[in-house]
Amino acid sequence: MMRGLFAQFVVSVTLVGCSWRRVASVRVAVEDGDPDEASIWDVFGPHGPQYTDIRQGRLGDCWLLASLAAIAHRHPHIIERLFVKRSLWDQARPVYTMALFLNGERTEVAVDDLVPALSNEFAFSRVGDEGHIWPALVEKGLAKAYGSYHDLNEGYPYDAFKAITQAPVSVFDTSQGDIWDLLAEAERSRWPVAANSWPNNLGAVAHHSFVILRTDEGARGKVVQVYNPWSVNKYSGQLADDTDAMQGTYWLTFEEFQTVFHSVYVAFVQSHYQISSLSVESNRSVALGFTMTGNSPFALQVEWPETRFLPTHCSNKLILGVVVSKADNLQDVHLSAFQGSTLFSNDRVDLPGGAGEYVVYISSDILNAKWMERIVVNIYADEEVTISVLSREPRALAASMFGIPFACDVFYDKTDGDTFRMMPHTTNGFPSWEGSAFKHVLWRNSKMGWLLSPAANATDRYY
């Protein structure tokens, strides 16, 4: 579902006044010294990827670079593992192939060592004195996948975390009462964290993504250390005297943190977890099955194309219902439902784990893009899993999971004295039944359980 062709990608650079230059030639010009010494560079340094390798240039992709820095800080091996087919690095014209997760599927994207340059400077992601080029390569790979560098302007760390790790990601408001505990737990668990800022009087850049490096609680009280992908800062808060303005890394008090930042993005990365995926038809219901051999917690995720992969002015508005349970205990359900437009192209069900066979009901309806024929289901777990499509009728499976007496799509409810028939369409992603006498709809609400609503209102509800 990639929107851009490589020819369009090349044109997009020339249109902004840049030229393609080989990394080594740009470094020679920047160093302005001994060409042999200045041309020394590599994909990674001797200690692997570091968050300080990230230096944002003239492109508004802080959401991407902050996320890369956060991953490099806590899971550098994920950045290294991103690069495959390394034998191609040794060619006269090296090729760098990255295994990205685009719309939930592993996708290999290859680029060479040409980078956009303005005169003698890197135009976008800059390469520092150490000569580590992996940030520029990942930036170029995603620009190619999305269609152009322009398509990297503005975004959310959520999308970058998904593209690099495919781990579950959640967004938290910094004003919530347990945000300090969350940051501390993320540090202990080595979860990458990024945060978005808003206007403030502390000198921190507004409308910008930062990396959350660590927390501390001691003589200074509760403090949080952050990194600005610009690799510079103008922080003027309470701890400004402890800050090196040219490094981009600084501490601020927890109260200042809550003043500067409004949202925190956490990628729940587990270093030994794997991704198992299956592409299924959209705009219909499907019944799936898989088997877990271990007892560790895992997540079942549903992915659909993010807006960058859609034609201009197209929406990814959809209705989605997901129900998961063990095959030997169908009515112990874990479910999620979504209806409407979303900034993020992912929904998930977190499961506590347990060996055994699992069944899944998924209903999807992409309202404004019926041509979008597939969605991706993946499982993030500490073992590889085979997901298969079951022959069982999906709505019949959902009815059994919800405990509905199911016989020929019809059942009689003694309490209401009415006969209910299964409706041909879902209500908020789940099967529903319409009463023949009173024209009420019995439907499942993901938060409130079963509801009996007037037929005219039930399908208008957003849950």
UniProtKB/TrEMBL annotation:
Q: Which SMART domains match?
A: CysPc (SM00230)
Q: Which residues form the Calpain catalytic domain?
A: 19-270
Q: Does the keyword Hydrolase apply?
A: yes
Give me any GO biological process, just one.
proteolysis
Q: Which residues form the active site?
A: C62, H208, N228
Pfam families to which the protein is assigned, alphabetical: Peptidase_C2 (PF00648)
Q: What is the residue range of the signal peptide feature?
A: 1-25
Any idea which UniProt keywords this protein has?
Hydrolase, Protease, Signal, Thiol protease
Q: What GO terms are given for molecular function?
A: calcium-dependent cysteine-type endopeptidase activity
Q: Which family, according to the similarity comment?
A: Belongs to the peptidase C2 family.
Task: Quote the PANTHER family the UniProt record gives.
Answer: CALPAIN (PTHR10183), CALPAIN-5 (PTHR10183:SF379)
Name recorded for this polypeptide: Calpain catalytic domain-containing protein
| Organism of this sequence | Noctiluca scintillans
Q: What is the lineage of its organism?
A: Eukaryota, Sar, Alveolata, Dinophyceae, Noctilucales
